[in-house]
Amino acid sequence: MEENTNKIICPDCGTEIVRPEGMEIGDILECSNCGTEVEVMSIDPLKYRELIEEK
Ligand SMILES: [Zn+2]
Q1: Using CA atoms, how far apart are residues 44 and 54, in angstroms rounded to an integer?
Q2: Terminal-to-terminal C-alpha distance of the chain
Q3: pLDDT, tens digit, for every residue of 6-50?
Q4: CA of 1 relative to ligand 1 center, distance in Å
Q5: What is the full DSSP assignment across the chain?
Q6: How does pLDDT run across 4-17, given as a tens digit for each residue?
Q7: Can you list the alpha helix ranges (DSSP code H) found in 1-55?
Q8: Which among 49, 52, 43 is positioned nearest to 20, based on CA atoms?
């Protein structure tokens, strides 16, 4: 059973991040709840990773 394969879930707070139309590999999406940035690694299958920036 596959779940949430088309959803991007914030790795930090678990909020779903809405996929923008025309999303492409390498796009950076921002969680609307906590501001964590996620980089799109692959569209199909959907893969992404948390983008960690040093301050
Ligand atoms: Zn978040």
Answers
A1: 29
A2: 39
A3: 889 999 999 999 999 999 999 999 999 999 999 999 998 999 999
A4: 25
A5: ---STT-EE-TTT-PEEPPPTT--TT-EEE-TTT--EEEEEETTTTEEEEE----
A6: 568 899 999 999 99
A7: none
A8: 43
The CA 10 to ligand 1 mean position distance, Å, reads 5
Between the CA of 45 and the centroid of ligand 1 the distance, in Å, is: 21
The torsion angle over the Cα atoms of residues 19, 35, 27 and 22, rounded to 10 degrees, is 20
Q: What is the CATH number of domain 8-51?
A: 2.20.28.160
Q: How far is the CA of 32 from the centre of ligand 1 (A)?
A: 7
Domain ranges of the chain: 8-51
